[in-house]
Amino acid sequence: MSASSNSLRTPTDNDLAWVEAARGGDLEAFDQLVRKYAPRVLRLAIRIVGNETDAEDVLQDAFLKAYAKLDQFQGNSRFYTWIVRIAVNEALMRLRRRRGERELPLDQELDTGEEWLPREVVDWRPDPEQQYSRRELGDLLAAAEDSLALPYRQVFHLRDVEGLSTEETAKALDLSVPAVKSRLLRARLQLRETLSRHFRSAAGNGHIRADGTTPGEGTETHEPEKRP
Amino acid sequence: MRCAEFLRELCDYLDGETAAGLCAEIDDHMRRCPKCRIVVETCRTTVSLYGRQLPPEIPAALHARVMAAVARQRGSQSR
Q1: What is the pLDDT of residues B9-63, one digit of tens each?
Q2: Whether A73 contacts A83, CB under 8 Å
Q3: Is there a contact between A60 and B66 if contact means CB atoms under 8 Å apart?
């Protein structure tokens, strides 16, 4: 977890002071909140709506709504969690409008099969950060995340990219804690699988069995082990 | 513990939230199963890589646009 993420994990007195001042009409205080959180809100919006133009509109609408509802913000949760919840709702509304549907058929995107079980069981060497430039790596990670179905992508993004706790993620997405955990597991395993195709060891044409041997071609399926 | 059972506990394991009663079984499986060790390590790297990604910078024009909209909203609310 990065230092910047960690700094967002703990409530800051500044946020509460800025919210209080903004409630009193101090636009400069609200400007501070926008400066602090807009980059993360924009990144979240891009991952949900899929393009920067719509994401910028989501960003603006989210902060407009937050400003209008500042009186409803209760200091017992973080401003960050609050604005994330607003932004998720704005992004989903925009997505629904674009798709011309009253509601996103989210559950239809949830697969229930076992295809999420690991297939690519290979080491990642050298370290992916040594294999790719920062920009290449960022593009790879974003593309892999975008390949997740929306229900998994939202949970993964809030939990592992933005650093919200499981409980905060559940609250932001109106999900139960077990649902967050279940979706997070699928998301992490699917991303690991997708990224393995890029990061697998260069040796042995990228396929190294866990026992150290190298198969001729193809990928290795991770079968449940049988006890002797 | 079989691999599929282990994998269901993977998130809690990565997040250091394994239920107390399962710790011994999980540790035992990790010792015996090299495949699951690789899955755990690559999954841990996945989470770590994403957690270290920096958010984009906000262009000055976009920031100005947001704040102008907020100022307009404040103006219309106060009228």
Answers
A1: 999 999 988 888 888 898 899 999 999 999 999 999 999 999 999 999 999 999 9
A2: no
A3: yes
Q: What was the ipTM of the complex prediction?
A: 0.91
Round to whole Å and give the CA distance between A55 and B56: 12
Nearest CA in chain B to A124: B42
DSSP string for residues in A29-95? HHHHHHHHHHHHHHHHHHHHHSSHHHHHHHHHHHHHHHHHTGGG--TTS-HHHHHHHHHHHHHHHHH
Instruction: For chain A, give the longest Cα–Cα distance.
Output: 71
Please tell me whether residue A223 adopts helix, strand or coil conformation. coil
Contact call for residues B42 and A144 (beta carbons, < 8 A): no
Signed CA dihedral, A157, A158, A159, A160: sign only:
positive
CB B36 within 8 A of CB B3: yes
Residue A52's closest CA among B69, B58, B65? Answer: B58
The amino acid at residue A73 is F
Selecting from A2, A42, A222 the residue whose C-beta is nearest the C-beta of B52 gives A2
CA angle in degrees (0–180, nearest 5) for A209-A211-A214: 40
Q: Which of A35, A42, A115 to mutate: most B Cβ within 10 Å?
A: A42
Residue A120, C-beta contacts closer than 8 angstroms, at least 6 positions apart: A192, A193, A196, A197, A200, A219, A220
What is the Cα–Cα distance from A99 to A92, expressed in whole angstroms?
10
Q: Residue with structure tokens 């260069």?
A: A202
